[in-house]
Amino acid sequence: MGRLLDSLLEGSHAYRIEREADSYTLVADPDCLDEFSDLVREAAAQAGEEFVVFPVCEGGHLYSQMVVVPLDGVSKSR
After folding, report:
1. CB atoms within 10 A of CB 3
2. Rounded to an integer, what distance in angstroms lies between the CA atom of residue 1 and that of residue 7?
């Protein structure tokens, strides 16, 4: 896994992690929405070959959740 993905999955005081079968849902602490939203924007900007993200917006510029799907083992068709 890449450095940002590893960092996201280590956790933070700004969110908790819910493990799913093939993904992770990062759920923001309500008191840390600005910090979490900054992290979501950074992850979305760096997503691509290693992982994709699906953010959940609370309106405006704030995010409350982000689904992170690692792309390990996904075959590339070119």
Report:
1. 9
2. 10
